[in-house]
């Protein structure tokens, strides 16, 4: 149990450091097209290699997705790829600590999409949690201390768009019922992500990219911590501890991203922002408390 908890927590922390890596890569002159596409492509390659040599994967009768499942996984992967692309785009314009707060809005956007498209009415607990998340977001954004003055509207729109895309990805993924092995599922999704990112950035990648050791360094870090390590840890840890504990542990992405932006990028985080971050985390825990109570001991 302790090992599984650590796996889920470590996977969330891995996601949390991505925006700092991207910001540092920007400072060295690399573009969003290079970073996003190569992260997805390298992640896809690593996952396919792991799938090829995985003994566990071979013992599950080498399950091959049907055409409909393959298409659904590919589209889900494309949505995830666009989430990363738009999120990385946002940190070009606004601080990483603000971008991650905006991204966390996916927690209530997913509930809203379920309500609109699948008539799944939110509970009172969920509505109260959403109100707390929005309150925490206002505090965490720096609005109370005047730090939002001069922030790029474009950057904020991109960050909120990434939250919306992530909400779509989560809702779509939850509707895909499949017993396809994790490595097969992840590699197909990364293929969809890589294909879409290459398609929308083909001109820049073919004419303006500069591939060197510096770019390779950042791509390897982003692929490992954003594409390979979290899915592997989540797939092993989440089934053992359940959705309630997992949702709480995965919210660790928020404070880790903010701490990294403060320590490494030297972004200023004031007292009210930390209070807002804590309120968002509390809201996520509260929203999932029913799942936690139903969790078998």
Tell me what the structure shows.
With 297 residues, the protein is an all-alpha fold. The protein has one domain (2-293). It has 14 helices and no strands. The protein starts with a helix and ends with a helix.
What is the helical fraction, as a range of percent?
over 70%
Report mean pLDDT, rounded to a whole number: 83
N-to-C series of helices and strands = HHHHHHHHHHHHHH
Find the structural class using helix and strand composition.
mainly alpha
| Backbone shape | globular
Brief sketch in words of this structure:
The protein is mostly helical and 297 residues long. It has helices at residues 2-16, 18-27, 32-53, 55-59, 67-90, 96-103, 106-118, 124-140, 153-175, 182-207, 213-250, 253-263, 271-287, 289-293.
List the helices and strands and how they pair.
Elements: H1 2-16, H2 18-27, H3 32-53, H4 55-59, H5 67-90, H6 96-103, H7 106-118, H8 124-140, H9 153-175, H10 182-207, H11 213-250, H12 253-263, H13 271-287, H14 289-293
Helix pairs in contact: 1-11, 1-12, 2-11, 3-5, 3-10, 3-11, 5-9, 5-10, 6-9, 6-12, 7-9, 8-13, 10-11
């Amino acid at each position: 149990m302790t090992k599984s908890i650590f796996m889920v927590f470590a996977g969330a922390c891995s996601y949390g450091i991505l925006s700092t890596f991207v910001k540092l890569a920007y400072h060295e002159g690399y573009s969003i097209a290079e970073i996003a596409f190569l992260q997805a492509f390298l992640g896809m390659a690593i996952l396919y290699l792991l799938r090829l040599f995985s003994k566990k994967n071979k013992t599950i009768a080498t399950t091959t997705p049907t055409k409909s499942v393959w298409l659904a996984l590919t589209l889900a992967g494309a949505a995830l790829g666009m989430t990363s692309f738009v999120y990385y785009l946002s940190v070009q314009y606004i601080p990483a600590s603000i971008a991650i707060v905006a991204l966390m809005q996916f927690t209530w956007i997913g509930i809203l999409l379920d309500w609109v498209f699948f008539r799944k009415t939110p509970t009172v607990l969920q509505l109260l949690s959403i109100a707390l998340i929005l309150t925490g977001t206002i505090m965490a954004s720096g609005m109370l201390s005047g730090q939002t003055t001069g922030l790029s509207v474009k950057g904020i729109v991109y960050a909120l768009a990434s939250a919306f895309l992530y909400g779509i990805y989560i809702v779509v993924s939850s509707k895909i019922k499949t017993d396809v092995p994790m490595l097969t599922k992840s590699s197909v999704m990364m293929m969809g992500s890589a294909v879409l990112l290459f398609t929308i950035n083909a001109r820049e990648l073919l004419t303006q990219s500069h591939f060197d050791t510096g770019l390779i360094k950042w791509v390897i870090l982003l692929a490992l911590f954003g594409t390979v390590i979290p899915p592997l840890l989540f797939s092993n840890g989440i089934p053992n501890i359940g959705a309630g504990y997992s949702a709480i542990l995965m919210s660790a992405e928020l404070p880790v991203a903010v701490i990294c932006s403060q320590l490494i990028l030297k972004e200023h985080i004031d007292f009210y922002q930390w209070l807002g971050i804590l309120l968002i985390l509390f809201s996520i825990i509260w929203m999932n408390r029913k799942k936690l109570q139903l969790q078998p001991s």
